[in-house]
Amino acid sequence: MAYLDAHVLDLAWAGVVYWLALGLSALLMRRSHGRLIRLVFPCGALGALFIAVIGVTGLFLPASAMVLPIGLPDLPFHLRLDALSAFFMTLLGAAAFGITVHAASYFRGMAAGPLALLALWYHLFLASMTAVLLADDAYAFMVAWEMMALSSYFLVTTDHRVPEIRRAGFLYLLIAHIGALALLLAFGVLQGGHGDYTFDAMRHAGRTPFWASAAYLLALFGFGAKAGLVPLHVWLPEAHPAAPSPVSALMSGVMLKTAIYGLLRLTFDLLGMQIGWWGTLALALGLGTALYGVIFAAVQSDIKRLLAWSSIENIGVIFAAFGLTLIFYTDGKGMLAALTLTALLYHALNHAFFKGLLFIGTGSVLHATGERHMGRLGGLMRFMPWTAWLTLVGALAIAGLPPLNGFVSEWLLLQAFLLTPSLTQPYLNMMIPVAAATVALAAALAAYVMVKFFGVVFLGQPRDPALQRAHEARWPERLGMLWLAAGCVALGLFPALLINWLAPVVKLLTGHALAHDGNWLILAPVSAERASYAPLIFLIVVAAVVMLTFLWVRRVYHGRVRRSEPWGCGYPEQHARMQDSAEGFGQPIRQIFEVFMRVERDTPDPFERAPRYRGDSRDKLWILFYQPVARVADWLSEQAGRLQHGRIQWYLVYSFVTLIVLLVFTS
After folding, report:
1. What share of the chain is helix, strand, coil (3-state, %, to 5)?
2. How buried is residue 11: exposed, middle or buried, by Cβ count under 10 Å (0-12/13-18/19+)?
3. 39-57 mean pLDDT
């Protein structure tokens, strides 16, 4: 243990260097397709497992720090590993292991040259996310943050020959850099004019409430842009579908959580003060994001775009938990702040597992069928049973059904809402019940979205005859899905154990931790008399009821089975096109929440021999805010482009005029 105390941070940094070396070695193997698939990606998965082990170890060890002799003069890299960074390293490593195992088979069809470049950016992406979690000064943090943005941009634009993918990559990079600029300004405010950009100096820098609020708002903007907080979400539904599925899984499951890490680090660790209205603002933004994301997820027909909007909904839930934590913390309700922060961390970990599982399951469907549009899928459960059953685990988990992991974190958050005592601010006492109802509505709609997703893709009849040639995922892909599905089950069945592991993080940030009586079977966030949950007992009871029902039915009917065609409403000529479609599932949501979107419909003429219907629901925020900015930017670019007319004499005139103007202003 003493050795680990002294060297755990060295081992964590060694994991970063390992991934960097692995990515560079992929370039040396650019002529060997077999080595890239059988060596580089499996070694990358082992590195993820190593980082997860280091993270779990760091949760229970004292904080450690080190200074690396790299960087600029007088600006070396400062690194630190404490309970907060250790938790997010555990999340990163555990989710990345399953995703990378899946990627080893998913990218098998790529040519060796592009695959080597992809392996470079993939492992650089993993290394930079880990470096973000270890950074202990603004310089190292921003260098790692920019490496993360650039490497993920090149991963998103893997298929850069497609114009839509190039546009999605440009939008992602643009918003990522706008957010990074806000973070630079936030760190500038935090250092207080002393010129010392280490996090330790920021912790001890004195600042007024005005400047603390300025730093918080800049951080909320910068980290919100990376996380996909509405109205800064517009890049996410474009970039996630454009990226390869394992990359989408990493971006949604892991990269979005680096923004949550950064916001927690800055708010509870670096600022040194917290103000009540900060939490109210974060809660309102989180609730709006959750509801907005799930509404748009419900009306999507592209499976990857549906999952991207679902990620926005889950980020909204996490931000709502963050806002509620701040409200309780500033109001002196330390135990309730610990409860909501536990729910936040638990949901972040849950989302990494079930959203990673859903994205790579979708990737296996895409590999097998070449199709992302749900209107041309269906009935895949009979052709891809492994993929279907494992994806069902992720769908049930994200829908919040017990005894899987998604239920635990949402139940903890709702308990925090329900157990809220009277707060000092009267408007909060009115707002909290509305917030609880909004979270419950978002959770219900999320379950609706998953019924649509799984039912349309895997159940029913194939909507295209070509789907009968769909093949099951290879074993490495199945192993990656099995790992993430096992995580969803384990996190759902043993929440009391995990909450004990989260205690060091919660205590570091709030000064409190959830009291637990040591009974690993029962989870009681406040007291067993108020509310408790026993997932293993719940599972055993449900399994027993199902088994007894099965045996009773077998006994009564003596095992007799009568098979017949299902009733077709009196119409004997049913075919696949008559079953519910993705558009049909989304139609009620589109009608109810039409105020949030611009609905476009192309309806067929009643006399068409081959009628086709097309509907699209466009984001009104994009139309109202982003399109005007894009038009102005295009106009300014067009005006500036007129200066480039290819005549050298005019270029010399521009230079001469610029020189004269500079001389006038400097004299």
Report:
1. 75, 5, 20
2. middle
3. 93
CB atoms closer than 10 angstroms to residue 182: 20
Residue count of the chain, please give it: 667
Contacts by 188-192, CB closer than 8 A, 24 or more apart: 189/214, 189/215, 189/218, 190/138, 190/215, 190/266, 190/270, 190/271, 191/138
Residue 423 DSSP one-character state: -
pLDDT of residue 391: 94
* Alpha helices (runs of H) in 424-527, residue ranges in sequence order: 426-458, 475-493, 495-510
Q: Which helix (H) or strand (E) holds 149?
A: helix 138-156
Tokens of 212: 């603390």
Contact of 630 with 170, CB cutoff 8 Å: no
Nearest alpha-carbon partner for 99 in 254, 237, 313: 254
Tokens of 121: 């950016």
| pLDDT tens sequence across 329-351 | 988 888 888 999 999 999 999 99
Structure tokens at 226: 């990376």
Q: Judge whether 535 and 489 are in contact, CB under 8 Å.
A: no
d(Cα 305, Cα 302) in Å, to the nearest integer?
5
Per DSSP, the three-state class of 531 is coil
Query: Which H or E element spans position 79?
Result: strand 75-81
Report residue 27 as tokens.
């370039």
Q: How many whole angstroms separate alpha carbon 656 and alpha carbon 650?
A: 10
pTM: 0.91
Q: How far apart are CA 107 and CA 304, in angstroms?
A: 18
Q: Tokens 């558009």 sit at which residue?
A: 583
The predicted-structure confidence for 457-466, as pLDDT tens digits, reads as follows: 888 788 777 7
- Residues facing residue 137 across a β-bridge: 198
Q: State the SS3 of 599-654.
A: EEEECCCCCCCCCCCEEEEEEHHHHHHHHHHHHHHHHHHHHHHCCCCCCHHHHHHH
Place of tokens 């193997």: 29
pLDDT tens per residue, range 419-439? 777 777 777 777 888 888 888
Compute the average pLDDT of residues 561-575. Answer: 70
